[in-house]
Amino acid sequence: MGMKLGCLFLLFLIPAYAQTAQFENQTIADIQFSPVQPLDPADLARALPFQKGSLLHADDVASAIDNLFASGRFEDIVVEAERSGDGVNLHFVTQLTSYFGGLTVVGQIPNPPNKTQIASITELTLGAAFRDEDLTRAQQAIQELLKKNGMYASSVTLAVTRDDSAQQVFLTVRIAGKKRARYERPAIQGGSILPAKTILKATGWRFPIVHWWRQVTERRTNTGVQGVLAAYEKKDRLKASVNLQKLDYNPQTGKVRPTLDIDPGPRVKVTAVETKVSKRVLKRYVPVFEEHEVYNDLLVEGRRNLIDYFQAQGYYDVDVVFRDQPPKDDLETITYAISRGQRYKLVKVSLAGNHYFTGGTIRERMYMQAASFTMRRGRYSEAFQRKDEGSIADLYRSNGFRDVKVNCTLNHNYGGKTGEIGVSVNIDEGPQWMVDHLTLEGIKQVDSKRITSQLASIAGQPFSDVNLASDRVAILTYYYENGFPSATFKATWTPGSRPHRVNVTYAVKEGDRQYVRRVITSGLSTTRPSLIDRNITLHPGDPLSPVEETEIQKTLYDLGIFANVDTAIQDPDGDDDHKYVLYNFQEANRYSLAVGLGLQAGRYGNPYSNNLSSPGGTTSASPLMSLDVNRLNFLGIGQTVGLHFLYSLLERRGSATYEIPRFLGDKGRTVTFTLLYDDSFNVLTFASQREEASVQAAQRFSKSLRGQFQFAYRRVSVNNVVIPVLLVPELQQPVRIGILTANLAQDRRDNAADPHHGMYNTLDIGLASHFFGSQRSFARVLARNATYYSLTKSIVLARQTQFGVIIPYDVPAGISTAESVPLGERFFGGGPDTLRAFAFDQAGPRDTGAALVPGGPSSAPTGLPLGGNALFYNNVEVRFPLIGSNIGGVLFHDMGNIFTSLGNMSLSYHQPSMRDFNYTAQAVGFGIRYKTPVGPLRLDLAYALNPPSFVGFKGTAQQLLQCNPTQTYTTGPCVGVPQTLSHFQFFFSIGQTF
Question: Is the CB of residue 793 less than 8 Å from the CB of residue 836?
């Protein structure tokens, strides 16, 4: 390459010298470029060693050509000189370099491949130099990708559009024809051994039963090959190889015939002798199963893995050797001889010699762990010991203890007990090295104080190689962020005036600073450019910061309206200091549709049953279906219109939303307008209908603090009320509620799905008032505090307390204070996320019947929940590993209840009477958690220590309504029956309780 460039420059220099020699020392009258001059004026002035009015020298012309080529913006340069009066005109005739600016795919293409895959397969890089031969290569690559996905009849044409102002080239890929070919029976080469029927089934290329051939996709082809390989693995043929030789397309039938070349190899049997080991364990720890290869390095790795496995089980003296017997009679045998030796229990891990760090700081970095409730034999292995020695030493070295030594001593028969061992970790800290003085050299164009504030190796701080490396990253990152891509750093140190003291010198070479020439966007169709401009914080003349460039890309992705946002610096390796920053967009599909099917199961009670004999609910199940339709990027301004529907036996809900993200330019603020209709049967007492219009503003105040502010105007009504009409006529009337609410949430958990430490606080305040057009006035407060503590590496103590109160005021005449709060606005509790002493929404006050007139007869009691105006919950959980790394256990205690009012709140353990439910219910229980990517699957079994008792109703709703409250009954369904809620509850759901 160097020789070719040298020859090229020579060809340019010869005519330059020849033409300019006769004008040597003549005055330059004018400098012209043809067709255009693409450089920024500052870069051009730096590239040309002369200007108008200067004397012409041939060497300067040669230097100008070199500098212009180094900018990267020219493919060819010829200099022509001609006399002009008493001077000379210089004419630069150039051929400009073109740069790739983006790609657009046109045509209805079934996925796969998607547009991102098509753009990627071209291997065209945004901002890189583009040449005509790239077109042919890109077209062939796209055509091949389409064939791999079964679209053999599709045609690909490429159209080029040029933007001469920034030397950009844009490609439009037009794909016609989308019919996808189907598979046909594959051709098998080699020694298959397995029947053709088995191989065909393993590919998955044909639907079972109906035997229709599937459509061809690259992923399905690869999956089919892997399926055949897996079929051979099931037959212990770990050395089998399956290769796809070709795909033959028949245009007459529209089918593709794959050809598979199969080498089954011998059967490989991996066994363990002397110690029984399951095949599952062997597959997990001996990598020949995963690699589908058998060679010595994998067998050695398997030996190490098995040693670690048995040492983790307490067999610290385990010895493992292997033998690989060559294939004989189509069988290769690999035998691991495992001598476990005595089983030990690690009862003590002690630290000695540590003075600088506490034992807790050191232990949290250690793998070795003494036996405990969750780890019966402790955790020890030679590998763990080596890791712990290295981790502790690294901790000390990073804090200036350069001479630290760490070694572990294994003590057998610890405390005189056979089979029990202790490990002593002995630490010789040595002296701590410190920095006496730090010198910064070469910092001229940036603020040195800003850099110094980020450094670790300043005077009086520990000296370590880790800190030097950290400072190197900090300094170069700072320069990189501020437009110095070629900055270099060198650290040196010399002994100080005292022992174990050093003087540190950081030498920086800043290099040239780069600036933003212009930000260029492309690929927008629906989106308004003003939306993009508001989110681009780099402007012409700013220092070129790749870090800020990437942050802008993340911000644009966060808009949620782009499938892809590609960014680059045009010609980053060119010597020009003023660069174009490019953003190329691929807009996401404007419409999205999501359909969900599920099942709700629990002790809900059947809302369509006439039987009221189980006020606490019975185990029931309800199918669940959801439908979400969203229109993204509405009007091209990044806003979203959505329609959302949910249907089940327990709830029917429909809503329309209009979402405005980044309201008033704040990326942490979102405003949402909502219309909602909801018909829910949360408890057996009644069904709640809600027709609501609301506006909500969500604001992120900091990384951990968020707020939501909402005004809602709704009509709340109840139906399917099973309590007699004479008892609660006021509660059945539709009520108009206007309520203003504010919610604050502080989240400092390490993992929201499964926290191990941190806290989570929420405060919800609401005010319904006649001022807002509400027919009922009340204030609502609901507060929660949850904290998480890591007792050990694997045991977590989690606790949560919730308190809530509804305070009515301006109570309408003729109803009580409690009844002034509509049923649908009251607190209901009980279930997997509140109180596991109760089934869903079964906590709190219940219908006990009521006297129609003072001293007169009462209506029949139903025992159904009515909700309340105050709540208190307290949950405590101990979470610990149970089986392996994915299954955990939980011991929990829940206490609390729903109370009639704040004044009736009581922490009493005992229920006052069968008509009074203002006491604290408690439950203990055990749960299992199974880790999944979306959060832990949860099964909780609870035992209520003091479930409520009440007088309920045994019969149907019709029988209840026939009961005459003016008549006294001694027998029959109108007579209340004493009942007690079940002691046992179970819940199955996803996610931790809190």
Answer: no
Q: Which CATH class name applies to 515-587?
A: alpha beta
Rounded to whole angstroms, the Cα distance separating 116 from 171 reads 14
The CATH number of domain 2-96, selected from 3.40.630.10, 3.10.20.310, 3.10.300.10, 3.90.226.10: 3.10.20.310
Please state the φ and ψ torsions of residue 146, each to the nearest 5 degrees: -65, -40
CA distance 173 to 118: 9
- CA proximity to 950, closest of 857, 875, 861, 884: 861
Task: Answer whether CATH 3.10.20.310 is correct for domain 99-176.
Answer: yes
Element containing residue 203 per DSSP (H, E): helix 196-203
Range 963-967, long-range pairs (CB < 8 A, 24+ positions)? 963/724, 963/859, 963/860, 965/724, 965/726, 965/852, 965/857, 965/858, 965/859, 965/860, 966/852, 966/856, 966/857, 967/857
Per DSSP, the three-state class of 614 is coil
Distance CA 346, CA 670 (A): 55
The residues that bridge with 238 in the sheet, in sequence order, are none
CB neighbours of 823 closer than 8 A, spacing ≥ 6?
685, 686, 688, 718, 731, 866, 867
Long-range contacts from 303-306, C-beta under 8 angstroms, 24+ separation: 303/336, 304/383, 306/277, 306/336, 306/338
Q: Which two tokens stand for residue 283?
A: 């597959």
Tell me how far CA of residue 533 lies from CA of 111, 415, 515, 770, in angstroms.
Answer: 32, 73, 18, 44
pLDDT in tens, 23-80: 888 999 999 999 889 999 999 999 999 999 999 998 999 999 999 999 999 999 999 9
The CA distance from 875 to 880, in Å, is 16
| Structural domain 269-339, CATH architecture | Roll (3.10)
The domain made up of 182-263 is a member of CATH 3.10.20.310: yes
Q: Are 588 and 87 in contact (CB under 8 A)?
A: no
Between the alpha carbon of residue 417 and those of residues 375, 420, 421, the distances in Å are 19, 6, 8
Confidence band (pLDDT; 50, 70, 90) for 727? very low
